[in-house]
């Protein structure tokens, strides 16, 4: 879902935030976004481990009215998304 920035940049930003603030907020992660491959999902899992978050919200992708991804044909099936919840 428009993950248009480099892993390294985000990890560096997290480190700067941790150095400056005692408390922070985690980004909400969606899994099962249309077009997401097993490889991209594993990369996301690796990123989350590297980020070392204390808390994070993870939600299954679902179509929303007027959302760009709603029109995408290559959807991830519900069973695969549910399996990913245990990863």
Q: Which key features would you list for this structure?
A:
about 90 residues, mainly alpha, Transcription Regulator spoIIAA, 2 strands
What does this structure look like?
The protein is built from 3 helices and 2 strands. It is mainly α and 87 residues long. The mean pLDDT is 76. Strands 1-2 form a two-stranded parallel sheet.
- Shape verdict: elongated
CATH topology assignment: Transcription Regulator spoIIAA
Total DSSP helices: 3
Structural class: mainly alpha
SSE topology sketch:
Elements: H1 7-20, E1 28-31, H2 38-51, E2 57-60, H3 78-84
Parallel strand pairs: 1-2
Short description:
Helix content is 40%, strand content 9%.
């Amino acid at each position: 879902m428009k993950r248009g920035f480099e892993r390294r940049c985000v990890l560096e930003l997290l480190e700067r935030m941790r150095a400056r603030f005692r408390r922070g907020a985690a980004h909400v992660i969606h899994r099962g976004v249309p077009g997401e491959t097993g490889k991209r999902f594993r990369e996301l899992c690796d990123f989350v481990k590297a980020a070392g978050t204390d808390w994070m919200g993870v939600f299954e992708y679902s179509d929303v009215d007027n959302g760009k991804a709603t029109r995408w044909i290559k959807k991830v099936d519900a069973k695969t998304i549910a399996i990913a919840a245990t990863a």
